[in-house]
Amino acid sequence: MEVNHxxxxxxxxxxxxGELSETAERTIQELMYKGTPSVSIISEMELLGFKGISxxxxxxxxxxxxxxxxxxLSSSIKDKTIEIKRSIKIKxxxxxxxxxxxxxxxxxxxRNEKDFLNIxxx
Length: 122
Hints:
Strand content: 5-15%
CATH superfamily of the domain at 5-71 and 105-111: 5'-nuclease
Number of strands: 4
Distance between the termini: 26 Å
Structural class: alpha/beta
Number of helices: 6
Mean pLDDT: 90
CATH topology of the domain at 5-71 and 105-111: Rossmann fold
Helix content: 40-55%
Strand order of the largest sheet: 3-2-1-4
Radius of gyration: 14 Å
């Protein structure tokens, strides 16, 4: 299956917690049917390394991530992250996720679009 989009960590969290609207959940399911979603390795760490996560939540996260492509860090992602961080105020995990989307030419899905508004793809 084709990978054509990357999820911000919050999409996985809202999906696992059942906090997406019916429309959003339907859209996510349609995207998953059309192609394998991806996440940055940073999202894997954020999702599974959340303080206070229960064993059940951890296992649900592992199960969800097993259906996804996990994109590792690379030199090009590191360089793009640095470029983003030097140009706008953004949290490091968000900059890494954005850089991963740009380097892999993927659409980025997030519930916090404002975090990514000032990022240039080029």
